[in-house]
């Protein structure tokens, strides 16, 4: 496989993908290959477009030229994202990679708009296109090259988990479709005299625009703060629960500052009667070891809970039974009881999915519903409920 041979030849320590230098070498290789292939494709298609006088072919040619520029931006973006943290950016510069992918996306959209205009002008003022075998075969070769480039970028993006290269792979695959339309525009004049070049040019340009839109949508998501990787979530949860005497976890929040740059915080439930110095040492150890193992910065907050409290457990069991059948509620934590006699305050947090909650009822309405259900059993009880968002 050519992709593996290139990696073996040009990337040192290729298996150490968490090393920033290795990751940068992968990005440099992908960028250089992208530049070489796209400039070659630009030259081929521009020559073919000039020979046969096809606006669709020339549109595809300049699309490849923009892809070469995109590869340069990808290289620069990956290098800048590896800059160490400083006073202004204490979590590093990893998000620059997302910004470089966004720039690539806007360049793709710009090319699409330009050739919508050019193709529309060709529809108004059509020019005859003559079929020639050699230019047609050159376009077929360019399609194969672009397909391989898409697979190569996808291969590298999976190895180093790069959003910029994933965007480049997606873009290249879109180019396979547009180039196939271009090949069709060269073939059709052999069978018809209809001026189809401008119309196919429009289709190519629209495909380019859609590709750019899809890339923008995918790239903006991590910049806005998308949900964390489920695999990372499970690793953090599982790793935290391995430390005794942590009995439960909740309120896990993960911030993404670029590849390999995550900050996470989690609440860990511990027995309320344990020695404070002992559990403090355990929490410190857990933070240090999990952070090192998963390559993140983890902060653990201690939540003391009464595990075997005979007074509180019956109240907790009643509330759990009431909320068990509510599909909006995922879990409950930090349950406490304050007050004497029949006049008691039940204090607890519930975890909900905000999307589902907003579709069905308001947060206040949910609190009132739970309170009414509890008061139906214990009229003198009051509920102090905190609604937590499930960020997963």
From TrEMBL:
Subcellular location, record wording: Membrane
InterPro entries, sorted: Cation_efflux, Cation_efflux_CTD, Cation_efflux_CTD_sf, Cation_efflux_TM, Cation_efflux_TMD_sf, CDF_Transporter
Membrane topology term: Multi-pass membrane protein
Record family assignment: Belongs to the cation diffusion facilitator (CDF) transporter (TC 2.A.4) family.
Keyword Lyase: no
Primary site of residence: membrane
Gene3D superfamilies listed in its UniProt record: Cation efflux protein transmembrane domain, Cation efflux protein, cytoplasmic domain
Protein name: Cation diffusion facilitator transporter
Keywords from the UniProt entry: Membrane, Transmembrane, Transmembrane helix, Transport
Sequence ranges assigned to domain Cation efflux protein cytoplasmic in this UniProt record: 228-304
Protein source organism: Clostridium polyendosporum
Domain Cation efflux protein transmembrane as annotated: residue spans: 32-224
A GO MF term: monoatomic cation transmembrane transporter activity
GO CC field: membrane
Residue ranges crossing the lipid bilayer per the database entry: 28-55, 98-116, 128-149, 198-216
